[in-house]
Structures are given as C-alpha cells and as structure tokens.
Amino acid sequence: MIGQGKPVVVQVHDPTCTICTALQGETRAALRDFGECDMLYLIADIKQDAGFAFQAKHNVPHVTLVLFDGAGEAQQVLTGMRDSAELKTIFAGHFAAHGAKT
Question: How many Cβ atoms sit within 10 Å of the Cβ of residue 21?
Fold first, then answer.
C-alpha cells in the first residue's frame, strides 16, 4: 500500500529516458530536506510490470510525479520536467497539508 501513514512522491520513470533521469535528480535534490521518516520517494519503472501497472492505473505519462497523502490517495500530479527549487516548494506544501501532525 502506498503511504502507510506518510506522504509519498512516486515518479513514473522510464530508465531509457534522459528527461526522466534528469527529473529523478531534481526530485532527489528537492527531497533532501525531508527524511524518509517524513516523506517517501518511490520509482514506478514503466519497464517493469508493477511500474507499468501503476502508470496505467493512474493514467499518466512518464516524466511524471504523483503525490500521495499518508492514506495512499493521489493528491497531485506533476507532469513534465521541474527543477529542484520548484519541487522543493511543492513538496513543502504537500508535506504541510499531508505530513505528520504534531
């Protein structure tokens, strides 16, 4: 199950796509301020059965990030290339809305 109580960023990724690889680097850079205790980052590799099934279920192209809340509900879909500064702002808002409450 996606989430298990934590917000999750899932990248729909084609490992042969240079834009996907660039997005992965930008996403990892943007997530550096968040620990795995706060927000998870998962890859849905569309060259693998599970990744292809994820892509089909959510009806999204590769070069896409799908943001889930802790209950596993998709909250936002980001398609296309984004830089780490933009992603950091988006992830901070997502965590503020769906992260652990103290």
Answer: 13
CA angle 37, 33, 31 (to 5 degrees): 80
Q: Which residues pair with 41 in a beta bridge?
A: 9
pLDDT tens for residues 63-97?
A: 999 999 999 999 999 999 999 999 999 999 999 99
User: Hey, is 99 helix, strand or coil?
Assistant: coil
Q: How far apart are CA 42 and CA 34, in angstroms?
A: 14
Residue pair 6/70 in contact by the 8 Å Cβ criterion: yes
What's the confidence (pLDDT) of residue 38? 84
For residue 99, the tally of other CB atoms under 10 A from its CB is 17
Computed over its alpha carbons, how large is the radius of gyration of the chain?
13
In three-state secondary structure terms, 12 is strand
